[in-house]
Amino acid sequence: MSFLPQAPRGAGKKLLAATGGALCLTCHEKVKAASNSKIKHVPFQDGSCTACHDPHGSNYPGVLKDRADRVCYSCHSESEASFLKANTHKPVLDGACNACHKPHGGTRRSFSGRPARNSAVRATGS
Questions:
Q1: 100: burial class by Cβ within 10 Å (0-12, 13-18, 19+)?
Q2: Would you list the domain boundaries of the chain?
Q3: pLDDT at residue 120 above 70?
Q4: pTM, whole model, 2 decimals?
Q5: Which of 106, 51, 99 is closest to 75 using CA atoms?
Q6: Using an 8 Å Cβ cutoff, are 23 and 50 in contact?
């Protein structure tokens, strides 16, 4: 028995039906609908699904690479310091950014699912 790597069948040919986000969107119709969002999350817009997701599997919902907040904070580090306070919103404590934010896009810059209730939040775009 040999344990040396061997060339896969069809070596030199494409092994994927599509590449990048196009491959993901062949099955994920609900996510594909976010392509029509007024404002799109840059990795989603660029077809860089693997910036946040592991397509082969994960221990986290949505096949995220890590807990949702850790994935978000890996690019949005300024948000971590502003959100984690002595009195912290429960979804933030639970790492559930998507409880309030639509991760692929939306109609607001913050990708929030609904308008802010007070002017302080509205003014910061959070």
A1: middle
A2: 39-109
A3: no
A4: 0.72
A5: 51
A6: no
